[in-house]
Design goal:
The complex is a heterodimer. By secondary structure, chain A is of the alpha/beta class. Chain A contains 18 helices and 13 strands. In chain B, helix 5 packs antiparallel against helix 12 and helix 10 packs across helix 12. Classes of the chains: A alpha/beta, B mainly alpha. Chains A and B meet through helix 3, helix 11, helix 16, helix 17 and helix 18 of A and helix 14 of B.
Chain lengths: 425, 313
């Protein structure tokens, strides 16, 4: 039997052995780390990693691209911001640049250089990255948010794709009776916001006043938006829209049941990639408009560099490398037209014009705005989206709450989101 | 050696003990050694429990945003969340969720344990299999449930429609308030049941057979045997299991996050998921911490009452 003393001797010896067994410090090669999302078109990430490897070889460093599901990004980014450690670079979305304004490197020179070389930035993509203290991100790409419809169901009903939201409502009523409802998520997912902003703007409603501080929800126009949603929900959709995640509408149109959704081109691309016959029936058209014109709220993504990074210059070089025309083009092709360039000259890529199902997509840039418009993007807008306020307002209304009360609820929630303005320290 | 030393000492040679020996003597004193043994556990507790807990209290009393420390604001965050109806809804959800799930887990857990205590064939295999829901990583198994409740491809609805139990298209499990709450409770019960059953089973097998034999001799029916022998003797075990389960259920995150993300219209948000949404997704650490700390006094009361009850027993 072992005595206590022997036991300690053995364990202490083992511990010391383990400590000694540790390898000496490895020869240090610079490593640039980049935190991004799992792209909805995986081939796009493959191309990104290929370019990262090529850049690493040319610059005697390694570039590590870590990707996670898009819904997990906000928490992970918050954790890195809080602990002041993690990756060197990150993919920003929506108003992240405003939320982390004081923690991101100012990129004015880089943005200026890249912009001048390629015809300038689209204003909506620029606004998303331009804070009061400078450019906190390089606009990376935006995602067009067109109408996606099933041509066979539309042909059967004798309809052309809708030009306005009201027309969609009329068509939806018939299409639902035909067994092919339309689908817009009214749930805790980001597609629900994208569509809400678009519908609201087209009907002349807003969420914030131009000063970015005053809630601007309570109005007859918002009431009209809510009534439109209620009618669409009741007569043209099915209750499943209340439970959708971001892939809910994709599954809906790919199952062959749905006739119309408002979404990026990912369902079509995934049908093509999986050789699903439904790809032949799916087509796209520009996002519908309304009495106040045509408006779109596309997801806008950027590239930021943390101030705590020790590789700021290397990260800037890597961004410059990604924006070389040949690299950006290869990346657009890999995404099969999903990634839209924020630079005007890059938008001429033939991939859109060549495919009649994509030809109208670049036009979306002409009526795109950052969320929060007519207010300048700010962190409150991010919180409005993060807390699903607009989706919940609509969900309350379609579940029976009077439109006025739903608006009051949302107005109060927006006031809360505004109150918590992030201070630049 | 001891004898040798004594001989040397008696001969007038007094050997000074070496430094190592003195250190050993010091270390082996009862009170030093005792504290030495609990120090690692104490360090872990301080670093992983007390420090984060203290930080959470500090966050909740300040206007702290991610990466941006804020001023002390007193109880402002608490006042703010109490006036927010989404939070009030969350409190209500948490109580409904915990009460119903716990009720089902207790009744079904005892029932399952009684079944498992019988001399069944493949007893060991069955007892092992019962534990599966508890063993599989929750995020993974809940994804399976998420598919089963999917609005378009729900196997639950498909089966019920084929069996003519409901008419097509069937309930929208994750999109309608009552159904969504039912769905998250069902999954919580499914996951928590094995813990209940196996622990209660351990209590059951420790009840001496003689009590049952005596009851049988007295002519007690099986129901009377359960009511007067099994249940009273199970009480201490049950109290502990219910205590643990209350804590787990109140603090659940995975199930709601994967199935509904708090929707529809925040009707399935629990403290943890709402704190995550406000604190991490929205960056408002101060309020996020205040929300999750609301859990503390309630759990503290539950733990206090139950432990007192157990001690009395």
């Amino acid at each position: 039997m072992q005595t206590r003393r022997q036991f300690f001797r053995v364990t202490a010896g083992a511990g010391a052995g383990l400590a000694l067994a540790q390898a000496p410090a490895l020869a240090q090669k610079r490593e640039l780390t980049f935190f991004s999302w799992n792209h909805f078109v995986p081939a796009s990430d493959d191309e990104l990693r290929k370019q990262a490897e090529a850049f690493g070889k040319a610059n005697n460093c390694t570039v590590r691209v870590d990707t996670v599901a898009h819904l997990q990004m906000p928490a992970k980014i918050a954790a890195e911001a809080q602990s002041q450690s993690g990756h060197d670079m990150l993919r920003t979305a929506s108003a992240d640049t405003f939320l982390y304004e004081n923690l991101l490197v100012t990129l004015d020179d880089l943005v200026d250089k890249l912009g001048k070389a390629a015809g300038g930035w689209y204003p909506f993509a620029a606004e998303m990255n331009q804070t009061k203290s400078g450019w906190k991100g390089v606009p990376w790409f935006w995602v067009s948010f067109p109408g996606t419809y099933n041509m066979a169901h539309y042909k059967k009903a004798g309809f052309e794709p809708p030009k306005t939201w009201d027309e969609l409502l009329k068509q939806g009523k018939v299409l639902k009776k035909q067994g092919n409802p339309v689908g817009i998520p009214i749930s805790h997912c980001s597609d629900a916001h994208s569509t809400y902003w678009s519908v609201a703007w087209s009907m002349g409603a807003k969420v914030l006043e131009p000063d970015g501080k005053t809630p601007g929800i309570k109005s007859e126009k918002t009431e009209r938006v809510i009534e439109w949603y209620k009618e669409l929900y009741r007569d043209a959709m099915e209750p499943e829209v209340l439970s959708w995640d971001d892939a809910g509408n994709n599954r809906f149109i790919l199952s062959g049941k749905g006739s119309w959704i408002h979404n990026p081109i990912s369902p079509y691309n995934s049908a093509l990639a999986n050789k699903q016959p439904i790809a032949d029936d799916i087509n796209h058209h520009n996002s519908p408009g309304g009495p106040a014109g045509q408006h779109s709220a596309p997801p806008i993504l950027g590239l930021g560099i943390w101030k705590f990074s020790k590789n700021v210059e290397l990260a800037k070089e890597f961004i410059t490398y990604l924006f070389r025309k040949e690299n950006f083009d290869a990346w657009i092709v890999a995404s099969n037209a999903f990634n839209h360039p924020p630079l005007k000259h890059f938008a001429d890529h033939p991939i859109w014009a060549r495919n009649p199902k994509f030809a109208m997509l670049p036009k979306e840039a002409e009526f795109a705005h950052p969320r929060g418009w007519p207010a300048h993007p700010n962190d409150a807008v991010q919180r409005i989206d993060d807390n699903y306020i607009m989706a919940d307002m609509v969900a309350k209304a379609v579940n029976g709450m009077p439109a006025k009360r739903a608006m009051e609820w949302a107005e109060e929630q927006v006031a809360r989101a505004v109150k918590g303005q992030l201070k630049v320290s | 050696m001891a004898v040798g030393q004594r001989v040397l000492e008696s001969a007038g040679f007094r050997q000074e003990p070496g430094r190592l020996t003195r250190l050993r003597a010091w270390w082996e004193q009862e009170h030093v050694f005792g504290y030495g043994l609990i120090t690692p556990a104490l360090v872990l507790l301080v670093c992983l429990v007390a420090y984060p807990f203290g930080m959470a209290i500090y966050f909740s009393l300040s206007d702290y945003w991610v990466g941006s420390p804020g001023a002390f604001v007193g109880l402002n965050n608490y006042r703010e969340i109490l006036s927010n109806d989404v939070f009030r809804q969350t409190v209500q959800n948490s109580f409904v969720f915990t009460a119903i799930a716990l009720g089902f887990k207790t009744v079904l857990g005892i029932w399952l344990a009684l079944l498992l205590a019988r001399n069944l064939r493949f007893k060991r295999l069955l007892r092992g299999a019962i534990l599966l829901p508890w063993v599989i990583p929750t995020a993974l198994s809940v994804l399976g449930w998420w598919w089963m409740f999917d609005s378009l491809y729900s196997v639950v609805n498909w089966t019920a429609i084929r069996l003519h139990l409901i008419t097509a298209p069937g309930p929208n499990w994750l999109g309608q308030t009552a159904y969504a709450m039912t769905a998250v409770i069902v999954v919580n019960v499914w996951r928590g049941l094995p813990f209940f059953a196996i622990t209660v089973l351990a209590g059951l097998v420790s009840i001496p057979r003689e009590f049952y034999e005596a009851a049988e001799v007295d002519g007690a029916s099986s129901w009377q045997r359960f009511w007067t022998v099994t249940l009273p003797l199970l009480k201490p075990v049950l109290a502990v299991v219910i205590l643990f389960s209350t804590i787990f259920t109140f603090g659940d995150f995975n199930i709601v996050y994967v199935l509904t993300r708090g929707g529809p219209v925040n009707t399935t948000h629990l403290f943890a998921t709402y704190a995550y949404q406000i604190g991490l997704q929205g960056g408002n650490l101060g309020q996020g911490a205040a929300i999750s700390l609301f859990l503390f006094p309630m759990l503290f009361a539950v733990v206090f009452l139950q432990l007192r009850y157990i001690r009395k027993e």
